[in-house]
Amino acid sequence: MLTGIIIVAGIAAVLGALLGYAAIRFRVEGNPVVAEIDKILPQTQCGQCGFAGCHPYAEAIAEGQADINRCPPGGERNIRRLADLLGVEFKPLSDDVAEPKPRSLAVIDESLCIGCTLCIQACPVDAILGASKQMHTVIASECTGCELCLPPCPVDCIRMVPIKEDLGNWRWKYPANPLRAA
Amino acid sequence: MRKLHSFSGGIHPPEHKEQSTREPIAQASLASRLIVPLQQHMGAVGDPLVRKGQRVLKGQPLAAAAGAFSAATHAPTSGMVSALELHPAPHPSGLLALCAVIEPDGEDRWTEHSPLDWRNADPQATLARLRDGGVVGLGGAVFPTAVKARGNGRPVDTLIINGGECEPYITCDDMLMRERAPEISRGIEILQRLTGAREVVVGIEDNKPEAVAAMEAACGASAIPIQVEPVPTLYPAGGEKQLIKVITGREVPSRGLPAEVGVVCFNVATVYAVYRAVELGEPMVSRVVTVTGNVHAPRNFECLLGTPVGELAALAGPCVDTDGFIMGGPLMGFPLPSDAVPVVKATNCVIASSEALFPKPPPPMPCIRCGRCAEACPAGLQPMDLYWFAKAHNLAKAEEFSLFDCIECGCCDYVCPSHIPLVQYYKFAKGEIRTLAQEKETADRARRRHEFRQYRQDREKQERAARLASRAPGAKKAPATPEALAESQEAE
Ligand code: SF4
Ligand code: SF4
Ligand code: SF4
């Protein structure tokens, strides 16, 4: 009996020491979990989660400072993937973040644009082209629809235009017949 | 007679084929106007070549092929382009597609035909003819035929002509083989030359003895050896992978192409279109369509592309209780959003439906894991597991369990005692996975651009700091006055 306890305690001590050593010896720069989480986040950089961008939110999730259900553009699909990655339960989008909107693109009304460059400075992905006193244009293929260019525009000439469903991007919907419980 | 193999699973649904094969193929009458979607194929679509108000001849291109993975679209009759506008497409979504609307002038006058002497022509010229003649796979996938026929660097030893036509109600390929076998055999010769296949086999389900006999006679007279092989009737024996398995015993690898096992496969209607495009120099402007189901006179029609489905169906006399039309068969087809949508290259069959013919399925019940779906699945999948994963949005697992090998044949739906709309779940899951892949690409690009912007901003900040430092007292004074500036410029 006593030998048994000693052996088990011994094993525990050795393993504990090994783990402690490994934690110091093999510490990696930058948390790999953060990178994995960041890969799932949509990179809109809109800040609707309450953090300064997608990467800061990923860090907060990894540190347990933030819940996984705070990203409106990612929607439920991404919450499921985060839940999967982190091995936690899925939960619906948090009540204290905005409702998800249909994906949209910013469009600048070129007749009103005064070329102030404020939107260019606001765009996190450099999706707006233009120079001082020249009218500006949004590169549609790069715009993530984050809306960060809207508030700085002094003449309110930027509109968000939802991306329409067409034959190219149409997808089958989740079957409408809900399973009847027997 | 060769030794045939078999695929796992399959079902024997009631065929309902006999009623539409009693009469020969009829020429559908000219519709009041033709609505021609510019894209009727998989791949890129060219810009419109016609303007509103322009007169066109039958066979004149409306849109050219755009690049290698594409096919052209042509005016199905002569007349005037009355509009280039968005129209509901024959698609499950009912969304709009860009169409050329043609008011026929009733003369049906062709452009000049330019037959190709394909035996002596460069294969590239023949392939270009297929692309510019708008020839695409008519078995349903509308894949550009030239892309398939050019081989893409993989040697092909067996050419299989798919006359399976296994889905209930559909008889257009059957009638085509019965009536136009000699033309089909010419098309086979063209494709044999393009693919360089040593062996050519026509697979026909053995419930079509007339088609088998006609094809045997025509292929026996051909200049090249062509085997006609009746295969056992078992849905979906006309599935590409299934027919290849039955005829050659080879398994097309998971998510792979037939060319990986040295096989290339074309549907008989496609082969007929190949013949017309190459040997007659006629672009694809019509096809044979079965009109059947809840109609008084089910029949096959040679129908101009762009004919509104309602006008075509009227020729067969829909019964009064008809409540809609299905494009394709009852297992893989879909209900059309309206009868105003046009017949397109993918339209092999139009079934008038009614509550009596296709009663609403009872409400689905939970899966009891009886395993019948797995027994019926011709792709060797575990449909109940796929269903479970798709239902729970567990996309990674669904993909891991070979979701993309599902051919959406509907065998599992057909046998499921709980009436679960299984295929709908698979279609949904496939779409989600495709969307995710696209979103990931967008996100990766946004991340790179955002990181670059941060890097640029950091660099600008550093540069500004460096500039400020260089102006600080003690550093070499920068020229501030106009005189000093001029001095420093002179010094340079
Ligand atoms: S253009 Fe506007 S909405 Fe689009 S990514 Fe830039 S800031 Fe966001
Ligand atoms: S046939 Fe239906 S009930 Fe039976 S295992 Fe498959 S999905 Fe479940
Ligand atoms: S629809 Fe897919 S899962 Fe169902 S039987 Fe056909 S191949 Fe198998």
Secondary structure elements and their pairing?
The complex is a heterodimer of chains A (about 180) and B (about 500).
Chain A: H1 2-25, H2 32-40, H3 54-62, H4 75-86, E1 104-108, H5 118-122, E2 128-129, E3 137-138, E4 158-162
Antiparallel strand pairs in A: 1-4, 2-3
Helix pairs in contact in A: 2-3
Chain B: E1 26-27, E2 34-37, E3 55-56, E4 61-63, E5 73-74, E6 79-88, E7 96-104, H1 123-132, H2 145-149, E8 158-163, H3 172-195, E9 199-205, H4 209-220, E10 227-231, H5 240-248, E11 263-267, H6 268-280, E12 286-293, E13 299-304, H7 309-314, E14 324-327, E15 334-335, E16 349-353, H8 372-376, H9 383-391, H10 395-400, H11 411-415, H12 422-471, H13 482-491
Parallel strand pairs in B: 1-13, 8-9, 8-11, 9-10, 12-16
Antiparallel strand pairs in B: 2-7, 3-6, 4-5, 6-7, 12-13, 14-15, 14-16
Observed structural traits:
heterodimer; A: 182 residues; mainly alpha; 3-methyladenine DNA Glycosylase II, Chain A, domain 3; Alpha-Beta Plaits; two-stranded antiparallel ribbon; 5 helices; 4 strands; 32% helix; elongated; B: 492 residues; alpha/beta; Rossmann fold; Ubiquitin-like (UB roll); 3 domains; 6-stranded mixed sheet; 4-stranded antiparallel sheet; 13 helices; 33% helix; disordered C terminus; binds iron/sulfur cluster
The distinct bound ligands, ions and cofactors come out as:
iron/sulfur cluster
- Sheet with most strands: strand arrangement of chain B: 1-13-12-16-14-15
| Radius of gyration of chain A, CA atoms, in whole angstroms | 24 Å
Largest sheet of chain B: 6 strands, mixed
CA-CA gap between termini of chain A? 54 Å
Number of domains of chain B: 3
Task: Tell me what the CATH architecture of the largest domain in chain B is.
Answer: 3-Layer(aba) Sandwich
